[in-house]
């Protein structure tokens, strides 16, 4: 059974039909990039996978759990699915360490010492071991995003959803965040990312999904999709972003 | 005829100012507790509760406090519940300030980025955990200055309780004036006393506003 599986997912915002029957399967350990023009439904698709958005038809199963609009089930699901946002969404009134430890303390009920050890290890992994007691407001965007990744990893998710996580960063800070993602891939983490970093999608991603008009328009291994796009829409999209 | 010295006037006004301060405090605490309850209920995002609270707020913000005092004082006795001026004043001011406090605090909660809720949701925090650890601490910091600022409005609002016969600063002023016939002097004293109560609050609000601005 695939780790993530979407079956004919339809989503409407009022009369606006945003997702028009999306099928998608992601296996454990895969790195899948979702690309497409703004408004093509790629972020919405990602947000449906962890219940941040409701969908109206079809089914989504993640880590053998159906994604349904039920608060209790979604809270269980959140242990399997991590998410990193474009705007970081760190808690500004807490230190970096507290940000990373909050959910493990409240949800997993880890004890203090164990929790601190975990947070320190995660911050070291993202290269921020010296920032444990700093406040997010005093960090650069790239550092904040790496804290956000560490915070998600603390819950040891099976899949990490990344919603344009480098789009709000200054160009020189993008690399440090992508490096963390590469490292996660090397460790076997499943990543699904909505991204505008075409180089990253091609070089690091296993597979690319091109979304257009609320549908999976074209999909395939990264190398193939980028070097030999089949549809006219993908060709013109790639031409525009290059 | 009895002669009143300035000190007599001031002394009696100061005695009455106690009741202004006490009434303000009761309205502040009562309105605060009730307003907090409304705010927590509303943040649960139940449609019916939201409509009811919205209606409540519109009513108490849309009717002059004076009318609210009249309606409480005379209205309750019409339906057979006799209330004294004290009780009526406390009830009215509590309801009045709860509507405003609720509105201030709701605004502070809604001013937080939606991403804060979403981050908590994806981390598996419950509603109560989210409120307690993430939303309330941030909203509280933002709300301190406008909350203190509104307390000035409450102090000034207590003056209206004079019309239902509650003897606080304003009422005492007009009673004393009826005896000494020196309206300008008496009401200058009254105004100064109100200012002495309100000014520190205004300064405090401004100070807190600045402080929190820097912290962000």
UniProtKB/TrEMBL annotation, chain A:
InterPro entries: AAA+_ATPase, ABC_ATPase_HisP-typ, ABC_transporter-like_ATP-bd, ABC_transporter-like_CS, MetN_ABC_transporter-like, P-loop_NTPase
Keyword Membrane annotated: yes
Keyword entries, A-Z: Amino-acid transport, ATP-binding, Cell membrane, Membrane, Nucleotide-binding, Transport
Membrane protein topology class: Peripheral membrane protein
Domain ABC transporter, residue spans: 4-238
SMART domains: AAA (SM00382)
Highest taxon of source: Bacteria
Predominant cellular place of this UniProt entry's protein: membrane
Subcellular location: Cell inner membrane
Gene Ontology MF: a single term: ATP binding
Family in the record: Belongs to the ABC transporter superfamily.
Protein name: Amino acid ABC transporter ATP-binding protein
From TrEMBL, chain B:
UniProt subcellular location: Cell inner membrane; Cell membrane
Domain of life the protein comes from: Bacteria
SUPFAM superfamilies named in the record: MetI-like
Main subcellular localisation: membrane
Gene3D superfamilies referenced in this protein's UniProt entry, alphabetically: MetI-like
Keyword Cell membrane appears in the UniProt entry: yes
Transmembrane parts of this sequence: 20-41, 85-105, 148-167, 187-208
Keywords: Amino-acid transport, Cell membrane, Membrane, Transmembrane, Transmembrane helix, Transport
Domain (ABC transmembrane type-1): residue spans on this chain: 17-205
Membrane topology: Multi-pass membrane protein
NCBIfam families named among the record's database cross-references: HEQRo_perm_3TM
Membership in a protein family: Belongs to the binding-protein-dependent transport system permease family. HisMQ subfamily.
Protein name as catalogued: Amino acid ABC transporter permease
Organism this protein belongs to: Psychromonas aquatilis
Taxon lineage: Bacteria, Pseudomonadati, Pseudomonadota, Gammaproteobacteria, Alteromonadales
């Amino acid at each position: 059974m695939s780790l993530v599986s979407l079956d004919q997912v339809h989503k409407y915002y009022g009369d606006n039909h945003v997702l028009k029957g999306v099928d998608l399967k992601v296996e454990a350990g895969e790195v899948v990039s979702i690309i497409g023009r703004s408004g093509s439904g790629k972020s919405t698709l990602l947000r449906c996978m962890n219940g941040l958005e409701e969908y109206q038809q079809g089914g989504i199963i993640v880590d053998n759990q159906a994604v349904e609009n039920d608060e209790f089930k979604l809270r269980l699901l959140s242990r399997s699915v991590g998410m990193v946002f474009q705007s970081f969404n760190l808690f500004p009134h807490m230190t970096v360490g507290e940000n990373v430890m909050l959910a493990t303390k409240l949800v997993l009920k880890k004890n203090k010492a164990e929790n601190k050890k975990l947070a320190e290890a995660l911050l070291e992994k993202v290269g921020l071991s010296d920032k444990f007691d700093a406040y997010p407001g005093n960090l650069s965007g790239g550092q904040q995003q790496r804290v956000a990744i560490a915070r998600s990893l603390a819950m040891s998710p099976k899949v990490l959803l990344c919603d344009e996580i480098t789009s709000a960063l200054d160009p020189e800070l993008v690399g440090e965040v992508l490096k963390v993602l590469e490292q996660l891939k090397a460790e076997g983490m499943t990543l699904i990312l909505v991204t505008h970093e075409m180089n990253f999608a091609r070089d690091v991603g296993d597979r690319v999904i091109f979304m257009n008009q609320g549908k999976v328009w074209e999909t395939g291994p990264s190398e193939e999709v980028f070097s030999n796009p089949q549809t006219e829409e993908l060709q013109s999209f790639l031409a525009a972003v290059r | 005829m009895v002669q009143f010295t300035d000190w007599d006037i001031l002394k009696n006004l100061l005695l009455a100012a106690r009741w202004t301060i006490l009434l303000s405090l009761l309205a502040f605490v009562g309105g605060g507790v009730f307003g907090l309850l409304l705010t927590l209920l509303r943040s649960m995002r139940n449609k019916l509760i939201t409509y009811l609270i919205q209606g409540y707020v519109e009513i108490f913000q849309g009717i002059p406090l004076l009318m609210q005092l009249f309606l409480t004082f005379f209205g309750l006795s019409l339906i057979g519940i006799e209330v004294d001026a004290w009780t009526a004043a406390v009830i009215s001011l509590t309801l009045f300030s709860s509507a405003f406090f609720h509105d201030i605090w709701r605004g502070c909660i809604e001013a937080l980025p939606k991403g804060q809720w979403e981050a908590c949701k994806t981390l598996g925090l419950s509603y109560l955990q989210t409120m307690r650890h993430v939303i309330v601490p941030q909203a509280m910091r933002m709300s301190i200055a406008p909350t203190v600022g509104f307390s000035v409005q409450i102090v000034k609002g207590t003056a209206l309780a004079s019309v239902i016969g509650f003897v606080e600063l304003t009422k005492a002023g007009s009673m004393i004036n009826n005896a000494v016939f020196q309206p300008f002097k008496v009401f200058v004293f009254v105004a100064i006393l109100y200012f002495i109560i309100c000014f520190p609050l205004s300064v405090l609000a401004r100070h807190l506003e600045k402080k929190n601005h820097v912290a962000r």
